[in-house]
Amino acid sequence: MAPSVLIAPSILSADLSRLNEEIKSIESSADWLQIDVMDGHFVPNTAFPFTQVQTIQTKLPLDIHLMVENPSEAAREFLSLHPKNITFHAEAVQKTDDRRALLQAIRKGGATAGIAINPPTPLSDIADVLGEVDLLLVMSVHPGFGGQSFIPSVLEKVTEARKRYPTLMIQMDGGVDDATAPLCIRAGANNLVAGSFIFRAADRAQAIASLRSSS
Fold it and tell me: Which domains does the chain carry?
């Protein structure tokens, strides 16, 4: 049986001019806080460098999503903030030995270790380490920008991963709202990242509750 569903608001869609206030507004309702770290190379956007993330004030567990060309270097830096989880992209680390080394380094640093796959990447591309990760992130949009439309075809990968690993934390990120969340959960996801749907809502606690109740 898969664990209950966690909700991780993505601050990529928050008002960055009042970031800590924005985070405070969802702190009592959310489970994790997702921080999308982008280097402008792996994805065509930049966001949340270490110096900015250092200034975040929250009691929520930090979920660091590394969309960068050199996740090993970035992971070492972000581990100093004692995050709950750090996820890197399979597309950025393609050698099995390098993937294992990074998973081990993240765990040694005190966080759980996740691997992410973009919409075109098949589950078979991470068969070498899928049984060793703490979290699988299946992107349901092409990474880099918030507010994109959900890509339903990726649900097949979630279903397959859930069949093979019944207790794995499977996270979905991209276009998650009250219409797509039930699809994600039925496929086997148990950790949902949502940005625009939460931070553009008049009642953010209710928006989070609606995602959670989709289960």
Answer: 6-212 (3.20.20.70)
pLDDT tens for 13-70 read 999 999 999 999 999 999 999 999 999 999 988 999 999 999 999 999 999 999 999 9
Q: Using an 8 Å Cβ cutoff, are 9 and 200 in contact?
A: no
Q: How far apart are CA 15 and CA 145, in angstroms?
A: 15
Q: Chain-centre distance of CA 69, in angstroms?
A: 17
211 close to 25: Cβ distance less than 8 angstroms: no
Residue 161: closest CA among 206, 131, 119: 131
Task: Show the tokens assigned to 178.
Answer: 């009250």
Alpha helix (H) residue ranges in the chain: 19-26, 50-53, 71-78, 96-108, 155-164, 181-187, 196-199, 204-212
pLDDT digits (tens, 9 = 90+) for 175-185: 999 999 999 99
Q: Is the dihedral of CA 6, 135, 193, 80 positive or negative?
A: positive
How distant, in Å, are the alpha carbons of 4, 16, 146, 204 from that of 66? 25, 19, 15, 25
Positions annotated as catalytic residues are 36, 173
